[in-house]
Design goal:
The chain is of the alpha+beta class. It is built from 41 helices and 76 strands. A hairpin with a 5-residue loop joins strand 48 (about 785) and strand 49 (about 795).
Length: about 1600
């Protein structure tokens, strides 16, 4: 099967005007298919001619009106106008303008400047002097209101315009032609209403203007015709777009620096960006950058052959000499190619050279029958003139730069018939000429039928051809359909409704409502079974705008109907050519609660238009709204209706990208379905993983149906043509990588190798290389396959774990990511746990993500930390995100965990972050050198961030320009970006699974499952490519054809993908000829990336020699040196003096990551100098937690004595405090008897009062030396008694001494409560610190100390007066008691004896006791507690269903939350972030919260399962596993503490299989209290200040 999809769209929101290619299989057009690769023209490209008033229709794709078409001067390519604003004070303007006028006169012999004026004395003599110099005086407004339409007073707005125009017209010899809206560069001041009702009207003195210069035209990187240096700053940011003053500023037409008509009567001369106001606002007045950017704007305008209308003021924002500088630049650089004109000259030349002397407005100001349209679809505007003076067609010949003139066969405007004359006292009437596309090929046609003329004409080969047959069938009620009657518009429009490239005919007026479709076979129009919806009219009885617009609101590629007037409104979606606009979304009258803003008001334009997926309204009533506009997003208009799937083309058009990028569709169904991963082979083939069996198998019961397909681009145009299923029947496959002559596939429980041996792209051989991966949630299974510099493949674990084997050996991979060596059948765990998509940068730094966290840095390497389990508790996985986790979707936020659709704009936070990748290429430009991208399929977007180096790690910051947007976002809720990759050419590829439901059914509400097909979209899927506008596609990948020498050269490719592929191919081939080439590259390669790959290639081939390694250790790039240190480790068994010297010299290297690696490596080297360096570096780096733990991990039996010799004398220094405990824990296990004596001597040294650190270090030493179940008295006996007595005496003194510091008290408590050392008196001293008179901090120290002691006497003191303790203290005591072996037993005894009450225990603690592993404890708990929670949680939910309807109070809920929930959850700054993040909760409905609270085990993510860890001392820790390594387990307990437990001290580790959140909360809270808690959570922790009565 071969299907071609050649679709692309420019970076941002523009009407989509291009040719598209589809096949019948790929895209069904509402039941009508294109049977072969067929060009479909844009049948709606001329509909703008029917707009009643829309000043914002042009865009980059709109046909151009270049300067040579109208300037009338050979060789002139561009026009610049200088329009100075706001004149009131003539003298001030003369002073400012004089240098500018003089310079223009020197250059051109006169001074073409236009002064846009508010008020002036028409008799002022200075005005005549200016006019004589070539200056024109144009109109602003008399009062300068910003905006012009404001304060609810339309007449006031018209008056200020009228008075200004009439006054300026009184200046002798001045003929004003142009107007500018006040503040149009800073506010949304222009409006379709103002154009239609003010500018295009006449003043009381019958004056009118012919042009406006009010709409900004920023030039952007989206325009491929413009060199990037003109539209980008040197740092890669947009040069001109940054001047747009605020987000809601919509007064702009991007990339259209050409004049264009508005509402048929008025020229718009778009403004160059920046204006001087915009510039001073952004970068202060008179900034040289403003001048540079104005020069760039002029240069870009010349390239575009357009007009630059420069706005400036004498207000101190730009100096006149700076304006002269701009003029000189234009004149000197472009000479005769550029022409300065005033506004009047522009109008004169447009009228003369473009319009054959026929202006847009007739002598009386009415429509003169002039239309500008692209007749032959060549991208240039042509001219049609149809009035009583001239009927002419003017076709622009771009290759000849000349006009071809011909007759136009009909009148566009005509005088009204006599009986209508009283209604139209002046001007001509609408003759009813309606343009559209009515013939194949896309050229213009028109339809007309009035009392004098009738017919259809097609433009063909430069002439109009009459088609007399094409009126057949245009009949209603036996009468011919009229396009105009007595000069009145009858509401006939040509519009392509079904996207077949041919327009239908719509008839809509108060008497008629019909749609006709042309039947090419019968050659007649066929009236369809549908018309426009009820109350929807195009025109009223007088031919006026009735408030209806055709707009594709649901973005499916078909025009929907939206109407709104004084009485009614409605939105109806187009369904098909059978039923028309039958899908009613919203309708009603003005009394309805939800309405659509009026498009017309009393049959007059109300200022509405459509842009950026919004309806915008600007009029006198919107001034006080944000941005001065009323707006409704398409998502708001669609409301809560389900989203339907879109065709590939329509979904493509729903994508929004930053300026300068474009997106292309390179594959779609049926070529590909449900893509979740992909990789390229050496021959350019694309291997795609298709998880067709998601979410629960093809049969809903787990039947595997995933597959891998091979896509090929046969014609090498960058779009895939052919798909072949390589292997199917896979069990939820998640990853793929081309490997040798086959592919590796991750499909838990296996990693497979499949191979095509006969060249037909179908696998003939399949082998299981690894097996044993966990089978949890399909979204959380093993995935990834990313190539490491070390020739290992790295995988994300997901969260399913497993015991993975390759042969007889198995590895437990729970809680850790994995790396494999497929050729050697090796598997190992590595630092971190990634949910979906682990990745690395060019230098070997690894990163990952999980649902709420877009990026982690895996700072520390597990293989080194495993050497010393007591090195410390610093997490190896660092959340490096800086700032908020907010994302900014474009689509309606549809949570299928929630039965409601949240409104657009509701806060969205990462909930499905995945596939975080590093951008490893140069195509996107230098500003992307440290960029990361993360997919967010739940919110239909891709997020970008920037890595910033921070010592040994990084911080990740949002791109500055993404404050409220994203790199990619789609308005299509079915768009599900699962996997993103940087392709061989540097473009970003996106796999779109395209599903209605992306959430796993495990998380769905049962009602949603019943009502929704969770497999909707399983037959669809798309792959997109994103690249900079104008970038050329790199040649197709053909590494299979390269010689080995060429592959070596590819190690220096700018493409990270190509470098990785070249490296592994060189290793597979192992050609001896490449070794000298690789050594040469290590020594003198052009790029550090190339040198690094060459070094690793030699190492993997086991052909690296010491000489080459030493060269790498001296490399100028720190990343090469860092990697060389690690690679050197095997050589350190017997290093040469040169290598040793070079390694040791790196001890002074300032690069933190070199320090990190060197600290690791020193522990692999048995050498006295290395040990001394390790000690020195430990002293220097102990403030950095990552360097500190790296150094401590390197301690071993062979180097610990030498290290202690270096650090021993410095132990009392304050900066050493952070390493004391892990240091002494390590020393206690590694020291030989001789070193033990030295350590004890240090601990007991000194005279007088000991230092605090000595008490703490001694306690740590004693802990580490004690055997499980033993005592420490024997160990303590090694310390001289004098020293021992002094330390303990000091400890007892500090406990009771008010002057002692917190640190002294804490360390004293720790020592006294070590094992059995403390006396009963010591216990009493500690217990006294639990008194309420003590500070909370001191009470907390005392609880920890008594827990440390842990015997019955300590527990007795902990439980004493428990009921009287403050709630937080009581919770801490219970946490401690529960951890102690004898704690639960004594607690139950106290309850049984009546000393304590059951009410002191919350639901979670009761659950722990009932579920205790000790059967006797569990039985006693069940007997004590009245009733156990009902195990049938569905029944509990049913019994409490009424709670959802209760009115909850967030303030009361806050107190209940603090008591019942804050132990594990954090919200609004209260509680502990142990359990799931409530801030990211997507379902806040009462029903959803009821399930979460009363049935917490319905769907538990593995990371929120409760674990119990029993250590060698019998203490039981209960909590969540934060991270695991081969050496340690890090557990977060409910008291907010993190416990790092060496595995060698763990006796038992088990999970209850349940959430940390207990069942049975209904036993603790009344129904009203449940409602209160839910209200608090639903409000996100936000509460009012008023406190209602307690709900009881």
């Amino acid at each position: 099967m071969q299907v071609k999809h050649a679709l692309f769209i420019r970076a941002r929101l523009v009407p989509f005007v291009c040719l598209v290619f589809f096949s019948a299989e790929a895209l069904s057009l509402r039941g009508e298919t294109q049977q072969h690769k067929t060009e479909v023209s844009d049948g709606n490209r001329l509909t703008y001619l029917d707009d009643f008033s829309n000043p914002y229709y042009p865009n980059l794709q709109f046909p151009k009106l270049i300067t040579p078409q109208w300037v009338g001067e050979k060789g002139v390519e561009a026009v610049v106008t200088l329009g100075i604003d706001d004149m009131r004070e003539v003298e001030r303007y003369e002073a400012y303008l004089r240098p500018i006028l003089d310079r223009l006169r020197e250059l051109y012999g006169y001074s073409p400047v236009s002064i846009v004026t508010n008020r002036v004395d028409p008799s002022d003599p200075q005005l005549q002097k200016w006019l004589a110099e070539g200056v024109t005086i144009e109109a602003h407004t008399a009062d300068h209101p910003c905006p012009c339409l404001r304060d609810g007073d339309f007449e006031k707005a018209k008056s200020t315009y009228d008075r200004c125009v009439d006054q300026i017209a009184k200046i002798p010899g001045n003929h004003p032609v142009a107007f500018r809206f006040p503040c149009c560069d800073s506010l949304n001041t222009p409006s379709p209403r103002a154009f239609a009702e003010i500018i295009n009207a006449r003043t009381p003195e019958e004056n009118f203007l012919q042009a406006s210069s009010s709409i900004c035209a920023p030039l952007t990187v989206d325009d491929p015709d413009l060199p990037r240096n003109l539209v980008e700053n040197t740092n890669g940011t947009p040069r001109f777009s940054r001047y747009i003053p605020f987000e809601l500023f919509v007064n702009k037409v991007e990339n259209y620096p050409y004049p264009f008509p508005v509402a048929k009567l008025c020229w718009e001369f778009p403004l160059a960006v920046p204006s001087d106001w915009q510039a001073q606002k952004l970068q202060k007045p008179n900034n040289p950058k403003t001048v540079d950017d104005l020069k760039a704007a002029v240069d870009a305008t010349v390239i575009k052959r357009g007009m630059a209308n420069i706005v400036f003021h004498p207000h101190g924002w730009i100096r006149s000499d700076q304006m002269v500088d701009v003029i000189d630049h234009a004149a000197n650089r472009w000479q005769d190619k550029i022409r300065f004109l005033n506004f009047s000259e522009c109008i004169d030349r447009l009228n003369k050279h473009l319009l054959s002397g026929q202006p847009l407005r007739a002598e009386d100001g009415t429509d003169n029958g002039v239309r500008l349209l692209d007749l032959n679809a060549d991208g240039y505007l042509d001219v049609v003139i149809g009035n009583r003076k001239l009927q002419q067609t003017r076709l622009w010949k771009p290759d000849q730069a000349a006009w071809d003139e011909n007759v136009f066969p009909v009148l566009v405007v005509d005088a009204p018939t006599p009986r209508d004359a009283e209604k139209k006292p002046s001007g001509a009437g609408d003759a009813g000429v309606r343009f559209g596309v009515l013939s194949p090929g896309g050229a213009a046609s028109f339809l007309v039928r009035n009392e004098k003329q009738a017919g259809v004409w097609h433009f063909h080969d430069g002439n109009w051809r009459h088609d007399p047959a094409m009126l057949a069938g245009l009949v209603l009620d036996g009468q011919p359909v009229m396009t105009s009657r007595n000069g009145v518009d009858q509401g006939v429009r040509l519009r392509d409704l079904n996207a077949d490239g041919i327009c239908e005919v719509i008839v809509s007026n108060p008497e008629q409502n019909a749609v006709f479709q042309w039947n090419a076979k019968t050659k007649q129009w066929i009236k369809q079974a549908f018309g426009l919806p009820e109350n929807a009219l195009l025109v009223d009885a007088e031919g006026r705008d009735a408030g209806l617009r055709f707009v594709d609101v649901n973005e499916d590629g078909y025009a929907d109907v939206l109407f709104s007037d004084d009485y009614a409104f409605g939105l109806y979606l187009f369904d098909s050519m059978h039923t028309g606009w039958s899908d009613q979304v919203l309708t009603g009258d003005r009394s309805a609660e939800k309405t659509i803003p009026q498009i017309t008001r009393a049959a007059r334009n109300n200022g509405a238009w459509f842009a950026k997926r919004h309806l915008w309204v600007q009029n006198e009533g919107t001034t006080r709204l944000p941005g001065g506009v009323d707006r409704r997003s398409f998502a708001e208009l669609l409301g809560d209706r389900p989203a339907e799937p879109k065709s590939p083309g329509a979904s493509l058009r729903s994508i929004e990208l930053p300026e300068g990028f474009e997106v292309e569709l390179v594959a779609a169904e049926p070529l590909v379905r449900d893509p979740v991963a992909f990789d390229w082979g050496a021959d350019g083939a694309l291997y795609v993983v298709e998880m067709i069996d998601y979410p629960e198998g093809l049969d809903g019961k787990g039947q595997g149906g995933g597959r891998v397909s091979v896509l090929r681009d046969l014609d090498k145009d960058g779009v895939y043509d052919q798909a072949t299923v390589m292997v199917d029947g896979l069990n939820f496959p998640t990853g793929v990588m081309a490997w040798r002559d086959g592919v590796l596939i991750t499909a838990a429980p296996d990693i497979l190798f499949v191979q095509d041996t006969d060249g037909d792209d179908v696998a003939d051989r399949q082998e299981t290389l690894f097996t044993g991966f966990g089978l949890g949630n399909q979204q959380h299974r093993v995935n990834g396959l990313v190539y490491g510099l070390d020739h290992w493949l790295y995988l994300a674990n997901g969260s399913s774990g497993g015991k993975v084997s390759a042969g007889e050996k198995s590895v437990d991979v729970r809680g850790r990511d994995i790396r494999i060596a497929p050729d050697a059948s090796l598997v190992e765990t590595v630092t971190g746990q990634t949910q979906y998509g682990r990745d690395r940068d060019d230098w070997g730094n690894w990163f990952g993500c999980n649902n709420p966290n877009p990026i982690f840095h895996f700072v520390l390497a597990e293989q080194y930390l495993n050497r010393n389990p007591f090195a410390g508790a610093t997490s190896s996985m660092r959340d490096i995100l800086e700032g908020s986790r907010r994302v900014f979707p474009l689509a309606r936020i549809i949570s299928h965990c929630n039965r409601n659709i949240r409104p657009l704009g509701a806060p969205a936070i990462f909930t499905s972050a995945g596939s975080t990748i590093l951008y490893r290429d140069t195509l996107f430009g230098p500003e992307y050198a440290d960029a990361t991208f993360t997919s967010e399929p739940a919110y239909n977007l891709i997020h970008r961030r920037r890595l910033v180096s921070e010592g040994t790690t990084f911080v990740s910051r949002r791109f500055a320009e993404d404050k409220q947007t994203e790199f990619l976002r789609s308005s299509d809720p079915w768009f599900r970006p699962t996997r993103i990759r940087v392709g061989p050419g540097g473009a970003l590829y996106v796999a779109d699974m395209y599903r209605r439901v992306i959430e796993h059914p495990k998380w769905l509400d049962p009602e949603v499952i019943q009502k929704t097909n969770v497999r909707d979209g399983h037959d669809r899927g798309r792959i997109y490519r994103i690249r900079p506008v104008g970038s050329s596609r790199q040649a197709p990948l053909d590494y299979d054809q390269l010689e080995v020498r060429d592959l070596v050269n590819e190690l220096e490719s700018p493409s990270g993908f190509r470098r990785d592929l070249a490296q592994r191919m060189l290793i597979w081939q192992a050609d001896p000829k490449i070794m000298p080439l690789l050594e040469q590259m290590v020594a003198g390669g052009k790029t550090p990336q190339g040198r690094l790959h060459a070094l690793h290639t030699l190492n993997a081939l086991e052909r690296l020699n010491e000489s080459t390694l030493v060269q790498a250790l001296e490399d100028p790039h720190p990343a090469v040196r860092r990697q060389a240190i690690q690679i050197a480790e095997p050589f350190l068994q017997a290093p040469s003096p040169d290598l040793s010297e070079r390694i040791l010299a790196l001890g002074t290297d300032p690069d933190p990551q070199i320090q990190l690696q060197l600290l690791y490596t020193l522990g692999q080297w048995s050498d006295d100098e290395a040990a001394q360096l390790l000690g020195q570096m430990l002293l220097q780096t102990c403030a950095d937690p990552y360097l500190r733990i790296a150094a401590l991990s390197s301690l071993n039996e062979s180097n610990v004595a030498a290290v202690f010799e270096v650090i021993g004398p410095e132990l009392g220094q304050a900066e050493m405090e952070s390493i004391l405990r892990p240091l002494f824990a390590s020393l206690a296990r590694l020291a030989d008897p001789e070193l033990q004596d030295k350590v004890l001597l240090a601990l007991g040294s000194g005279q007088g009062t000991p230092q605090a650190w000595q008490l703490d270090a001694l306690a740590e030493w004693l802990d580490a030396r004690r055997e499980p179940g033993g005592t420490v008295r024997g160990t303590l006996a090694q310390l001289p008694s004098e020293a021992s007595n002094r330390l303990f005496k000091t400890a007892r003194t500090w406990i009771v001494d008010p002057a002692a510091t917190d640190q002294q008290k804490r360390y004293a408590l720790r020592l006294l409560m070590t094992s059995d050392l403390g006396t009963p008196g010591d216990l009493d001293l500690v217990a006294e610190l639990l008194s309420p008179e003590q500070s909370p901090k001191m009470q907390s120290y005392a609880v920890s100390a008594l827990e440390r002691r842990g015997d019955l006497a300590a527990i007795e003191r902990l439980l004493a007066d428990l009921a009287a303790r403050a709630p937080e203290r009581r919770a801490g005591i219970l946490d401690s008691v529960f951890r102690l072996p004898l704690g639960p037993t004594m607690l139950l005894e106290k309850i049984e004896q009546g000393e304590l009450t059951v009410s002191l225990l919350d639901a979670h603690r009761k659950q722990r006791l009932r579920n205790a592993a000790d059967v006797s404890i569990a039985n006693r708990a069940k007997a004590l507690f009245e009733t156990a929670p009902d195990k049938d949680r569905g029944r509990v939910l049913e019994q409490h269903a009424h709670v959802a309807s209760l009115q909850g109070d967030p303030l009361r809920g806050k107190g209940l939350f603090e008591k019942q929930c804050s132990t594990c959850h954090e919200l609004a700054g209260m509680g502990r972030a142990i359990g799931s993040n409530l801030a990211t909760l997507r379902d806040r409905t009462p029903e959803g919260l009821m399930v979460a609270i009363l049935d917490p085990n319905r769907a538990v993510e593995p990371r929120y399962l409760e674990y119990q860890v029993e250590n060698a001392e019998g203490r039981i820790f209960s909590g969540l596993i934060l991270s695991e390594s081969e050496a340690n387990v890090v557990l977060a307990t409910a008291d907010g503490k993190k416990h790092t437990m060496p595995r060698q001290q763990i006796v038992d580790l088990r999970t209850s299989g349940q959430s940390l959140m207990p069942e049975g909360l209904e036993k603790e809270l009344s129904p009203q209290q449940l409602a209160d808690v839910m209200a608090f959570v639903a409000a996100g922790g936000s509460v009012a200040t008023d406190h209602p009565p307690d709900s009881g």
